Amino acid sequence: MTFMPWTPELALGVEEIDSQRQELVRLTNALHDEISSASPHRETIHGILEGLVDYTHNHFIVEEVLFQKHGYPDADKHLSEHSGFTGKMMGWLTRFEDGEDVNLEVLDFLKDWLVHHICEEDRAYLPFMRAALAGKKYHQQFPIKSDHPKYEQDIDAKKLWDKIIHNAWKSAEPGVLFWDTIIRESVPDCYADEGFVTVSTNPCGEIPLCPYDSCRLLALNLLSYVDNPFKKDAKFNFDKFRSHVAMAMRMMDDIIDLELEKVEQIIEKIAADPEDEDVRRVELELWKKILGMAQKGRRTGLGITAEGDMLAALGLVYGSEEAIAFAVEVQKTLAVEAYRASVKMAAERGAFPVYDAAKEKDNPMIARIREADPELYAEMEKVGRRNIAMLTIAPTGTTSLMSQTTSGIEPVFRTVYKRRRKINPSDKDTHVDYEDETGEKFQEYNVYHHNFVKWLEANGYDTSKLATISDEELGEWVAASPYHGATANDIDWVAKVKMQGAIQKWVDHSISVTVNLPNNVSEGLVAQVYRTAWECGCKGVTVYRDGCRDGVLLEKGSKKKQKCEEHPGQVPKRPKSIPADIVRFKNGTEDWIAFVGLQDGRPYEVFTGKIEEDAMYIPRKIDKGYIIKVREEDGTKRYDFQYTDRYGYTNTIGGISRLFDEEFWNYAKLISGVLRHGMPIEKTVSLIESLHLNSESINTWKTGVCRALKQYIVDGTKSKGKCPSCGQENMAYQNGCLTCMSCGYSKCG
Length: 749
What we know:
Elements: H1 15-36, H2 42-70, H3 75-97, H4 104-133, E1 137-142, E2 151-156, H5 157-171, E3 176-177, H6 179-185, E4 200-201, E5 208-209, E6 218-221, E7 226-227, E8 235-236, H7 238-272, H8 277-297, E9 302-305, H9 307-313, H10 321-349, H11 357-360, H12 364-372, H13 374-383, H14 397-403, E10 416-422, E11 434-435, E12 441-448, H15 450-458, H16 471-480, H17 493-504, E13 514-517, H18 523-535, E14 540-545, E15 553-555, E16 577-587, E17 590-599, E18 602-610, E19 624-631, E20 637-644, E21 650-653, H19 662-676, H20 681-689, H21 696-710, E22 718-719, E23 731-734, E24 737-740, E25 746-747
Parallel strand pairs: 6-9, 13-14
Antiparallel strand pairs: 1-2, 3-14, 4-5, 7-8, 10-12, 10-15, 11-12, 16-17, 16-19, 17-18, 19-20, 20-21, 22-23, 23-24, 24-25
Helix pairs in contact: 1-2, 1-4, 2-3, 3-4, 5-18, 7-8, 7-10, 10-13, 10-17, 12-13, 20-21
């Protein structure tokens, strides 16, 4: 029986604090086990006591920093308890070093103090900390864990989150990783003292990695384990699957040995190079560290592909409760058998060198393996296992193309879709279906999902008709197939996320997956997808909104515009009314105003000039409205500005273009024309700034226009030129200000 078990009552719900509390409890139990053993080792006890002193000291620093950062009112009382505990532990360590034994009094004190401190003192500040951590401000620094970071800033967390959501909705980037879930579930991080501290991931996010470790991937084709696919008696062959998992794990372990051989050869080559040692040292040390981490952990990445095709071949509808349950059963089988194979290899070849059952016994993934197969876990405790972590689900894009299956755990993207190939219009038997913004011409043709054709063949359809089949008849064929209602855009996103979260419980690394959404979804729904994925236990997720990128793969029947949206070949037609921002600025001693019309959130047109109060009075609190294009009876046009006052009444100022100085108005029309044709905002600003005008008033006006437009430049946009302060070519826009990302120098205006 564990001396001090970790219970839900001891958890505060603050990940940063709870993970450290768990380590303190682990050290306390380790001390108890060693003292209670038949022949306790003083060296081991000394190491545990040192660990308790060091770890409590570091942990208290984390709490104290949080107190200071958020202004916790009862910090003094709390800190006095910290000091008392540290003093006691230092006293016991000193007496032990002088030859005294550690008795049960130490253990009872540790247990009582931890329970009291966590359940009473720490819970007293929990509501405060939760409220503080839920605030808008978030502190960033680099290096992240440094006591003396080079760079620090407080950011508006909500603003950053909204920006992430907007860009994900707009362009499918970025995806997100839920770092708290990754670290909490990570088996390698149980060996942080050996260097296995997760700091990043491989490019697609399916393998969280520590420094100097390697990404190794292999996938089993699930469709190949379906006997009699797409027929009524279709069945998944679990026996064959289990045997192949064991083979795959041995193959991956052999691959690690081959990798180690190559790394050793590289090290030998560098060591034998004629260059001076100072020249070779950095490269040599790098490869030695890579070799050391590979030897210590022997990490693998065994995964799956063709999940969507497997379910269809069994007659299951992707996203249904039945399909999710079966998919989880397959992944659970894979996880247990992969761990079983690793344990068998440990008995034959040796465990990964730093294996320690005590270090990882409280890990959630290890706990699931223990619950699923107690005998396997008991054997693992005896002999260890060969690999520190071994499971993942990669996108398998190229692999699935070669095997002609769906990728990873994804459904089929399209049962039927169109593809484009570039053509020469003068070639025979060709016709132009699409022309891009550069004038390149393409012909479109139908592509059928390979296993949809297999289903047709298995069910007696004449597949020779696919080349000439009508859309109506093809629709009937698709509707009768197991892929109907189960494509990427058909699947309810909740079901997709739920399935990923359920499968993730049996994957000790991560899953690279995309939630596909219709074109007309809101940014709020994207935010909901990300939040739900986190709540379901996913370690990461990406969304793709149909049509948010211009590409070569299109849904059949798509009426997508034939011109590039970002840089249109021709100006899109202006709506009668567009939203507008008001920007006020000084031109010398005079008050000037700019009306910035917006299309899709970016500047589309600019009206600017001197404020004439008698002709154009707008309350200073009004900063938004609408610019309305009006065509007169004689064919001429004007632009009106319309806003709603504080009483809810609509006010219109007619002909704002006529109120401005003609010279300024002409320059404004030039700028509007550039914006309408899609020139990036930062380039438009550079163009305006480069204008050399003789009139001082026009130059002042020019500066005001630039200031207004800079507000719409996306944060992080790079700018040419060196920093006036440090000389580095690392200038970028932040909140409309040109900022050096190296030294922090900022120039606004």
